[in-house]
């Protein structure tokens, strides 16, 4: 279910949301798309802009170029699992009244459809290429960081400089579950602080069973393993855990680290008890300590 763009009502499909917006709020998303010639990403930005800024329908109807949602920040989903962002708007905005069929009209229509399909295919291919490139950089940086056990060195990996923000934000907005991990890997001070504490206090981890709650890319799990942990269990619900598996294999730590996909309160851990619990505190620590999510 997803929420209306202008009120708190919930609907089970994007079509129902748009129908409600049209009848109850006098907002026709197709009219806005056609008026401003929005492509797929323009539509995504429009939806996120409306959810974030909550403009009136009168304001939206009065807009002209430059549009207020042209910034790349509006590619980031404002509402988790928003059905409107998963909807093919072309299905809704096809012209209701078409000219009588003839060879010329059919040919022109097919050419337009082909042009649109080719454009979307190019965008998808470019986004995929950027995603693959960024994932490879993330894996390489994680491996370099873990393998650099000399905590006295203040030198940073050159991979940090290579991990830059995607220019149009498509990749990290489309794959939101990577965004927070990218930020962690790019934050040299924070990540090195975690590493230094774990490596400089091996007595806490040596021969211990460690639980990494919300392990993400597995950075903390690998630090703990390098510090001498007997067994490390990393748990994460997001799809990033599959990338973590690759990173752990690259570092040849799969015999020490076991990754479990699922919610920490629902999964069956391979060990009944653990000696140490670690977590990326700035993101999840408050939930663990104060909201008692693992009670």
UniProtKB/TrEMBL annotation:
Major place of localization?
A: cytoplasm
Keywords of the record, alphabetical order, are: Cytoplasm, Methyltransferase, Nucleus, Phosphoprotein, S-adenosyl-L-methionine, Transferase
User: Which part of the chain is the C2H2-type domain?
Assistant: 4-25
Q: Which InterPro entries match?
A: ANM3-like_C2H2_Zf, ANM3_Znf-C2H2, Arg_MeTrfase, SAM-dependent_MTases_sf, Znf_C2H2_sf, Znf_C2H2_type
Enzyme Commission (EC) number: 2.1.1.319
Q: List the SUPFAM superfamilies hit by this protein, alphabetically.
A: beta-beta-alpha zinc fingers (SSF57667), S-adenosyl-L-methionine-dependent methyltransferases (SSF53335)
Query: What GO MF terms are annotated?
Result: histone methyltransferase activity; protein-arginine omega-N asymmetric methyltransferase activity
What is this enzyme's catalytic activity, as reactions? Answer: L-arginyl-[protein] + S-adenosyl-L-methionine = N(omega)-methyl-L-arginyl-[protein] + S-adenosyl-L-homocysteine + H(+); L-arginyl-[protein] + 2 S-adenosyl-L-methionine = N(omega),N(omega)-dimethyl-L-arginyl-[protein] + 2 S-adenosyl-L-homocysteine + 2 H(+)
The lineage is: Eukaryota, Metazoa, Chordata, Craniata, Vertebrata
What name appears for this protein in its UniProt entry?
type I protein arginine methyltransferase
Q: Name one GO cellular component term.
A: cytosol
* GO BP annotations, alphabetical order: methylation
The protein's matches in Pfam families, at most eight in alphabetical order, are given as: ANM3_C2H2_Zf, ANM3_zf-C2H2, PrmA
List the subcellular locations.
Cytoplasm, Cytosol; Nucleus
**Family annotation (PANTHER family):** PROTEIN ARGININE N-METHYLTRANSFERASE, PROTEIN ARGININE N-METHYLTRANSFERASE 3
Q: Which organism is it from?
A: Tauraco erythrolophus (Red-crested turaco)
